[in-house]
Amino acid sequence: MRAKFVMSEVRIGLRRNVTMTFAVMITVAISLTVLGIGLLANSQVRVMKDYWYDKIQVSIFLCDPLSSSASCAGGPVTQAQINQIQSDIQALPVVQTVYFENQAQAYAHFQDQFKGSAIAQNVTQDQLPQSFRIKLKDPTKFAVIQSAFAGRPGVDSVQDEHTILDKFFKLLGVLRDGALLIGIASVLTAALLISNTLRLAAFSRRRETGVMRLVGASSFSIQLPFLLEGIVSTLIGWGVSTGLLAGFKYLIDTKVAPLLSFTRFFTWGDVWSASALLLLTGFIVSSASSVLTLRRHLKV
Amino acid sequence: MAPQGCTGAPVIRFENVSKIYPKQERPALEGVDLEIVKGEFVFLVGLSGSGKSTFLRLILKEETPTTGSIVVAGKDLNSLSAHKIPELRRQVGTVFQDFRLLPNKTVAENVAFTLHVLGYSQKEINREVPDALELVGLEEKADRRPSELAGGEQQRVAIARAYVSRPAILIADEPTGNLDPANSVGIMKLLDRINREGTTVLMATHDSTIVDQMRKRVIELEGGHVIRDQVRGVYGYSG
Q: Is the Cβ pair B86, A217 closer than 8 Å?
């Protein structure tokens, strides 16, 4: 069969089944959009992790006169201890950078962080401990620092800010997994709808396919117009879903991002790569469900 | 005996063919042994349920025989794989009692459909379709839809569609079953003309007048058995 003839048959098929074609397009558009939101949620978690893990660090708080832990029984940290701790930190291969924060710097930080609140006005410089702020090459290697410095004379406590964020990211992870699951479920629904639509189309065009069989059309050429109909509907649905995701990104950039300046959001690159993945998913799901359906309902 | 000009090479050969459908005790066909040579015109007669439809379906490989072997147009159907079936059907044109035209296509499009499916170029289609319509006398009605035509005309379109790709064999299953006598005669003349151009015609029918008039080979089936195979026969058993 010539391509022109096949395409004209596809056009006739799409027009004849216009309501079902429309239903397939909308279902594909919605299900791919839901899956796309799941994929973007995944990107968002990654972006936030990169952003936050880059900002946060491991802190070693040093003993001051207010410290009550056992390792501070010997009184406030001495300069000799500070020097020793610093050189020990720098000797560890997992450490990327380290800097010392004295009380004046800690106070400035504190004032900056709690600007305008009552607590900022009440705190004084000598209430804030000196500390080492360490950035690790691999944030998960916190245990190395913990075992090396916790309980050591002059060290009050070792704090990993990741552990606080991890709970938050765990929650985000659950939300992302939920979105992906719903996305996958709705893509499966779309697959079933495509299969059902093709079954109806095959039934309503049994006269044409019967004639094609009689004049000696191969099963591939009998199935091809149906297969292409499924794929064309899917492609249109995919186009709509990409449009919706782009709209979603635009909304986040213009309405949400200005309000939530403390974090970053997924990029346009994430939107396009999600869209590419959706195209692949849509293509595979629609052709697989079409081929399986047609094999059963359009036998030669 | 074959009409003049026939080579005598069999285009359809049944060797001891039986067909038993699942869940049926009585065979639809049993021990059928016959040959139809190139260029013959053969009537297949018998009551409903005598095995005529099964016979035709076996030739098109819509069914496979339970035992025995069938050769059609040089192809042994028992060893013909599924993807080669379309090749077989391209050599066998088919015409049915209910015409089986596509209602949304014009007469010319219906005839062209065969050629499109077989991958002919538009140029070839533009040449072949008017020829086929002229053969069946419908060149004036090329742009009509089947619903605008009388029954006899619809059957002519079906014949044009079956014949446009010049198949070696034309199978007609009760082609005059829905037509009045005058139209039936027209269809028979057409089939006779196609036959004289070298195509083997196998026609299943209940129409005794036609069979008696044409005096062609008659194969009669009863209960799945060939009970008569007569050169220049008539419909009823003459003796």
A: yes
Band of pLDDT at residue B239, cut at 50, 70 and 90: very low
* Cβ atoms of A66 and A279 closer than 8 Å: no
> Hey, what long-range contacts does B124-128 have (CB within 8 A, 24 or more apart)?
B128/B164, B128/B165
Token pair for B169: 């064999």
Distance CA A257, CA A235 (A): 31
The pLDDT value recorded for residue B2 is 39
* A279 contact B CB<8A: no
User: Per mean pLDDT, which range of A197-206, B17-26, B174-183 is the poorest?
Assistant: A197-206
pLDDT recorded at residue A203: 86
Contact A35, A184 (CB under 8 A): yes
Nearest-Cα distance to chain A for B89, in Å, is 5
Contacts of A47 (CB under 8 A, 6+ apart): A264, A265, A266, A267, A270
> Would you say the ipTM is above 0.90?
no
List beta partners, residue A45: none
For B167-181, the pLDDT digits (tens) are 999 999 999 988 888
pLDDT digits (tens, 9 = 90+) for A210-234: 888 888 888 888 888 888 888 888 9
Entry pTM? 0.68
What is the identity of the amino acid at A30?
Answer: I
**In chain B, pLDDT over 90 holds for what percent of residues?**
67
Helix, strand, coil percent values for chain B (each to nearest 5): 35, 25, 40
Q: Quick one: tokens of B117?
A: 């499916």
CA-based nearest distance B135→chain A, Å: 19
Classify strands B75-76 and B225-230 as parallel, antiparallel or unpaired: unpaired
Residues 6+ apart with CB under 8 A from A296: none
Query: CA dist B84 to A223, B61, B75, B170, B171, Å?
Result: 16, 10, 10, 19, 19
Q: Are B102 and A213 in contact (CB < 8 Å)?
A: no
Query: In this structure, are residues B39 and B7 in contact, taking their beta carbons and an 8 Å threshold?
Result: yes
- Site from B87, B89, B94 to mutate, A interface, most A CB atoms within 10 angstroms: B89
Asked if B117 lies within 8 A of A217 by C-beta distance, the reply is: yes
Q: Does position A300 have pLDDT exceeding 70, yes or no? A: no
Task: Provide the pLDDT for residue B237.
Answer: 58
Amino acid of residue A91: A
Length of chain A equals 300
What residue ranges define each of the domains in chain A, with the CATH number in brackets?
3-52+166-297 (no CATH), 56-161 (3.30.70.3040)
